[in-house]
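Why does residue order matter? Because the sequence determines the fold. Keep that principle in mind as you read this record.
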Amino acid sequence: MIRIENLTRDFGGGRGIHNLTMHIPKGSIFGYIGPNGAGKSTTIKILCSLYRQESGKAFIDGIEVCPQNSAKIKKIVGYMPDNFGVYDQMSVWEYLDFFCAAYHIPAKQRQKRIQEVLAITGSEHMIDYQVASLSKGMTQRIGLAKTLLHDPQLLILDEPQAGLDPYARIEMRQTIVRLRDLGKTIMLSSHILPELAGVCDLIGILEKGKLLAFGTVEEVSRKVQENLRISITLADKPEKALEICKANPNVAEPKVHENEIHLTFNGPRGDLPKLLASLVSAGVLVTEFKEDHANLEQVFLSVTHH
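Structure:
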């Protein structure tokens, strides 16, 4: 859905983006991560035809992002910025009807479309609310409903969960997953890293305009972890299991906590089954043997060298 090749927009002083390249497949949720000023908003505004790049190319669903294709791009992209305008004096119905007109949706089709986007975002009960009376979470859902009015194939959501309470964040996360299940491709920029880890198929970590890592959370975790971290859950005999682990030359820092052993494995991944086999052959009952991946916050700090 998104193909970016050597995209550059330099504002000086390291700001902007520099030779950015990444491909995001259709029907996926992509989490775009980076500190303030990393270049996330610059990338987003170029994709939305709000900025022009200095060099490089970007394509959305095969259409090049350039001035002559601006109208085509805006038909297939839905952009919800972190701060968007609302009209307090309107009802939710009037607000969405106004934007239906802005999107040139015929008057006869507007009622059905408004009801559809309210249903998708779980906001049907708000249809007669005054916009001024909406909470932050309600406003975000109505903003997302507005973004869906013209049925875009690509949704670019900038900090959609910022400022939301825990319940509203859960609702927003569920809505984002539901949109992916409906076939939408979603580019999600956020500082709330645990929330991204729970929904994203792919992540990209950006700092000072350069893409430092790209892939699934698991793939990026593996790249930044020098050694494998292993957790072994036991039914019994933790002391015996600890002795066996210590005897393995590839095992470092084995520690017992109740019925679990946590260790670092310095050998090749293909040698892990041998460690498990040595435990089982010694009569140790192993109920779980797994690799611990770094969480997204740890990955981000490691990739950006903080």
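The chain has a mean pLDDT of 89.
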